[in-house]
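Lab notebook page, bench 4
Experiment: in silico fold of construct C2
Operator: M.H.
Input chain length: 400 residues
Purpose: comparison with the prior construct
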Amino acid sequence: MTRPPFTGSFTQQEPIPDAGIAAALEVMRTGRLHRYNIAPGEEPAAMALEREYAAWQGARYCIALASGGQAMQIALRAAGVRPGDKVLSNAFTLAPVPGAIAGVGAEPVLVEITEDLVIDLDDLAAKASASGARHLMLSNMRGHLCDMDRLMQIAQAQGLTVIEDCAHTMGAAWNGRKSGNFGLAGCFSTQTYKHMNSGEGGFLTSDDAEFIARATIMSGSYMLYSRHGAGPESETFTDIRLDTPNLSARMDNLRAAILRPQLLALDRNIARWNDRYDRLAGHLAGHNAIRLPQRPASETYVGSSIQFLLPGIAARKAEAFLTATAAQGVELKWFGAAEPVAFTSAHQSWRYAPRQHLPATDRILSGLFDMRLPLTFSLEDCDLIAGHILDAATTLQEAA
């Protein structure tokens, strides 16, 4: 069967909603972009966004920050991580996660993953005991949730403080409990390719008043912590405000204004992403050379990207597969490449972390392919893209 090439863009996001554009223009007309520069009686956009996001997330506290990476670094510092400490994290993640750990002077201890692309809980328990680490930066990489109930049981038994990297799981849940609400804190991103788009930006959420007070001062509150939409009582800051350094990582009112209308549409957009994910996954699941990560019934996911494995594929054939799909306009990422490419990398390229022996992860990543699913794709686009992936997989299989 001859199919037309796919001509869409894998990096084209939907436009900012008209309400967001109007709100951004209003902020620019006032000139008060800094979150603490407000007129008497005015509620700045950043303050309103924090209150609204905390309510949507079901968290007691929320800080709007300059990026998801800053949310992770501030969370680690506010949780008490010190230079030289060991911090556990998934071996399958993106560079900002081990980068945040290294950025606070700590040492990443990487945990193996399973073929369903989640942290290996047996390896987590073993490495927690062996390393003496007291913190876990759990990366819900590419939107896949592990058994969060069992993970928290391990964390309690091992004395681990859990910080969740939810850059890919904004709106996901385990047994009805939202991602980001299990550990001490949830870290979220609003970078362009995430579930809300402000170019760069992020949130840090928690139910712990002292933790969020430390994080607020670190974000750069200039003692204006009362001007936050979802913060603790002023008394919480009495000593913390003088003991905690200012790291200047605030979100500004312009980005907050752009995000507020997107938050209103987020639940609807999650359903739209899942329509696209399910359509594509339904096609790929029928090919005997392709393995899709299994989604447990307890997981509510957000399918803004899709991953699949060609188990056992050699590097030369993986490169041929990428060339064949690219020739048809299908932009896949491969996590088995020797060098990092764009938004993919593997632990061997994180030279700021000690080299680690991760045979299971290496085997899985060698056959792992990844693809964005922007909402600018139609369901028919997903059918066409799936057809080209299946064609290339079949050709590869026949040539074996």
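Observations: Residues 18-264 form a domain with the Aspartate Aminotransferase; domain 2 fold (CATH 3.40.640.10). The first strand starts at residue 61 and ends at 65.
Next step: discuss at group meeting.
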